[in-house]
Amino acid sequence: MAATALQILTGSGERAQAIRTTLDEAAAAVNAHYAQVLSAVITMKNANLHRNAFGFSALRDLLLSQFDFTYATAGSVAAIARLSTKFTLLTEAATTGRARIDQVAYGVRQLDKTPAMRLFALTPFREAATSPFDPEVSCATPEAMLSEYCAHATFTELRAHIDALAAQLADQEELFEHLGEQALQWIEVGEQANGLWSLSGELSPDTGRLLDKYLKTACPPPRQSEQDNDGVLMAQPNRHAEALHQLLAGYGTSPQAATRHGHTATLDLTVDIETLQGKDTGRLPLLEGRPISVAKARLLACEAGIIPSVFDYETGEAVELGRALRLPNTALRRKLELEQPEGCAWQGCDRPIAWTEAHHIAHWADGGATVAENLILLCRFHHGRIHTPGWSVEKTGPGQALIVHHEGHESAPADIEGGCGCSGLAHRRGHGPSRGRRGILPHRALPRGVGIGIGIRTADQGRCGRAHQHPRRHQSGQGQIASQVRHRGSLR
């Protein structure tokens, strides 16, 4: 019995060793091929063949488009090749196969973040340092030491060493006297798998103070009256993110903003008019070349930072609608702000007027005019909510709007356009002289979970004249809950 168990164990150990040998040989072969690829790409780059022969300025795009490399491999090879003339020791470690290309690519990217880091990496130590992995190897520069880490350390150890190099910059004052603090700052922006974007970096003291002052100005501390139903104030980091969006969106559409090919920092939305109107065309709108939903396109088409282009599939012509047909001009925007001075039209929202967007009650793609009678101002979040199924908007006067949710009709887009008026939740906005009018009711608090405001319309009193059954409220005898938007005074 014991002999049988030992025989089985020995057999498993032999198989594991055989698999290890196979994987080691395969890994060595793969890394050797990567080193050959990198050498070829560097030769191509130095001879400018990627431009002259292949017609690509970006090495990564060339490798992805013309060859069957993975995204990660193409990115690593391109990063090393682009910086091969600057970081020669790291490049040599990769082309000789002494270090993996992913380790070296990470190293050169980190060294290339700032002018200060580049200079520090190439500046000789006062005394040569011994490699922690081989006492026979002497490293004259931080780059040489980093190449040792790329060759022998784990990724975690490599990252920790680079972080330590960055921390040592503070002790190199004499090295950076001519560079200034700007040489130390950097920002990285990257799209994540979930569609959100990550932002990280370090700013010079002046730039950091400017950004901090802007965020504090745009996002003052929340007031106690802005607590949610659980008594918690709004998260300040979330408010900061929205403030940054408004800063970029506002400056990006300014005539004084930086331009490229005559355009400021705007996003391109391409969609045919039938699709934008909600017709079943089988086509999806494209935002910067990527497909998005029709609902998202209708929302984005209202924003100043978006240039919508209608595509005629019969003629193949792209026709830019431009801003004049869809955005209020300066005078009209000023009129809307005077009539709605306290900001977003949504109950409980404290977003300032500068952060609001003009919402077409009848969408301009459906023939809605860009006039005051067809526009209300909403913050970006609530503007997006209005563009989800189940909502309709009625403008009842200057600075006044009734926003109605169609309970039980979430899957009926026709109700949104038709505005049948049955409501599970309604928001009414009024201005100064209207506070005492019938239907513009004073704000009062309701128990948690019930909502804000008081009943305005019962289930059988919809504007369309039809009876709409809402079982929960109908059985209890309650009318529909209508949330009154808090008073916004207008300037007269």
TrEMBL record:
GO molecular function: endonuclease activity; nucleic acid binding; zinc ion binding
Assigned keywords, A-Z: Coiled coil
Coiled-coil intervals: 155-182
InterPro entries: DUF222, HNH, HNH_nuc
Pfam family, one: DUF222
Region (Disordered) residue spans: 461-492
Biased composition (Basic residues): 465-475
Domain HNH nuclease intervals: 332-384
UniProt superkingdom: Bacteria
Family of this protein: Belongs to the Rv1128c/1148c/1588c/1702c/1945/3466 family.
Protein name: DUF222 domain-containing protein
Organism: Glycomyces paridis
